[in-house]
């Protein structure tokens, strides 16, 4: 496999890992607007044939980089991103409990979205 490119498809709510022209992994997320703007990752998915290659970690790292460039926090609901953030406190700051609660409320208000 060639180099993995990570691209942000904001309209679709996906950060995608692309290799050899195909999406091999993604983080599905939404942008929380209230009580403050935040990126909220909900699911991390890597195609089975590409597991164990560091793709999920690269996606999580890029999600935090996007948030930093935009000047917004990350409020992770995805279990993988939560664990990744715990292992990388230098990159991923502590999530704001108020934003996490608002993100959970948003998910409950939008059933079937993820």
Oligomeric state, counting identical vs distinct chains: single chain
- Spans of 5+ residues with little confidence (pLDDT < 50)? none
Order of helices and strands: EEEEHHH
Q: How would you sum up the global shape?
A: globular
Q: How many helix segments?
A: 3
* Major beta-sheet overview: 4 strands, antiparallel
Average pLDDT over all residues: 95
Which structural class is indicated by helix and strand composition? Answer: alpha+beta
Spatial arrangement of strands, main beta sheet: 1-2-3-4
Count of strand segments:
4
**What is the percentage of strand-forming residues?**
25-35%
Helix content: 25-40%
**N/C terminus separation:** 29 Å
Q: Rg, please?
A: 14 Å
What does this structure look like?
By secondary structure, the chain is an alpha+beta fold. It has 3 helices and 4 strands, in the order ββββααα. The protein has helices at residues 55-70, 79-87, 97-109; strands at residues 5-9, 14-19, 22-32, 38-46. A 4-stranded antiparallel beta sheet has the order 1-2-3-4. The longest helix has 16 residues, at 55-70. It is globular and about 40 Å long.
Q: Which features does this protein show?
A:
114 residues; alpha+beta
Could you give the topology of this structure?
Layout (H helix, E strand, L loop, with lengths): L4 E5 L4 E6 L2 E11 L5 E9 L8 H16 L8 H9 L9 H13 L5
Antiparallel strand pairs: 1-2, 2-3, 3-4
Offer a concise description of the structure.
With 114 residues, the protein is of the alpha+beta class.
């Amino acid at each position: 496999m060639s180099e993995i490119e990570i691209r942000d498809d904001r309209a679709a709510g996906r950060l995608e890992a692309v290799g050899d022209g195909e999406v091999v992994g993604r983080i599905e997320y939404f942008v929380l607007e209230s009580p403050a703007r935040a990126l909220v990752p909900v699911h991390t998915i890597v195609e089975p044939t590409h597991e164990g290659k560091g793709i999920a970690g690269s996606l999580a790292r890029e999600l935090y980089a996007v948030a930093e460039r935009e000047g917004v926090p990350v409020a992770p609901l995805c279990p993988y991103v939560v664990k990744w953030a715990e292992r990388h406190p230098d990159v991923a700051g502590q999530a704001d409990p108020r934003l996490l609660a608002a993100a959970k409320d948003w998910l409950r208000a939008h059933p079937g979205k993820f």
